[in-house]
Amino acid sequence: MPITYKKLWKLLIDKEMNKGQLRELSGVSPNVIAKLGKDDPVAMESLIKIAEALEVDFGDIVSIEGKENE
């Protein structure tokens, strides 16, 4: 599934935050941040923690781009 977290990275820029600050604020592991950086899928629980920490909706941090090649 072509998941992207571009919205999350744009949001961090707007909030003048870096990935380390996001990790501390949300309580997710460094592995989760690394997976996000590679647009790899992560557990829904981790995404919810991030959304709650940033006080945004889930759709404000993750999206699906196009369709996979068949």
Automatic annotation (TrEMBL):
Q: Can you tell me which residues the record assigns to a coiled coil?
A: none
Span of domain HTH cro/C1-type:
7-65
Q: InterPro entries, per this entry?
A: Cro/C1-type_HTH (IPR001387), Lambda_DNA-bd_dom_sf (IPR010982)
Q: Quote the Gene3D superfamilies the UniProt record gives.
A: lambda repressor-like DNA-binding domains
Put simply, this protein is called XRE family (YozG)
> What is the organism field in this record?
Fructobacillus evanidus
